Amino acid sequence: MAIAAMSDYRRPPNLVANTKEGRMALIYELKFCAEPWRALHLQKGWDQPIEKLITPDGEPDLWGEWEKRSWRVRKTPDITYFTPYFMACSRRVHDQIEGLVEGCGRWVKINSTDDYWAFQVTRVVPFIDEAHSDIDYLSPGRPQYIYERVYNGVSTGGCHIFRPYETVSQGFVTEDFKALIEAHNFTGVYFEPVPDH
Fold it and tell me: Angle at CA 1, nearest 5°, toward 31 and 101?
């Protein structure tokens, strides 16, 4: 696959991946909507390192609280951002996607007034061409955020939600994941097609 120089960036066709089933699938970046949805905050602070959220039994200690705004009525989304390590999902979403995301991460119950679950994406699928991408690093070899990206070919190995690095919170999904979310009209997220370079 030819690599385009950063200065020649254009919006080409979507990146496709080989799935475990042997077919090609489109790839999308999972994005969270700010409006008109309420935000679910981590009570201990959104920027807590993941190590500080782990209890002695090895499970995250997640306490969530929905934002309170008396001057604006905002709706509760089905899916929302919940710390750099987790996304929060309603019970309805959890029950619908649990089978699809099996093996791609782990579920943790959020202690909150509503029945919400956190999903931590643990599957890493390296498909970023670092040499031709604009990446912010925590330290050498540990990317933190990817700004301008050039992609290599990708094989998801049957996983429908994944990250390009362990240290990057940006999540990517297949068209099967996107189709399931859209079929049930779940709110709070949208999908940005990943360009094919």
Answer: 35
Q: What's the Cα-to-Cα distance from 22 to each of 2, 125, 178, 192, rounded to whole Å?
A: 23, 17, 19, 24
DSSP symbol at 5 = P
What whole-number distance in Å separates Cα of residue 156 and Cα of residue 190?
Answer: 20
Model pTM greater than 0.85? Answer: no
Q: Are 156 and 174 in contact (CB under 8 A)?
A: yes
Spans of all domains in the chain: 20-191
Strand partners, 189: 32
For 71-80, the pLDDT digits (tens) are 566 789 999 9
- Compute φ and ψ for 92, nearest 5 degrees: -60, -45
The DSSP bridge pattern shows strands 116-121 and 105-109 to be: antiparallel
For strand 86-90 and strand 105-109, is the pairing parallel, antiparallel, or unpaired?
unpaired
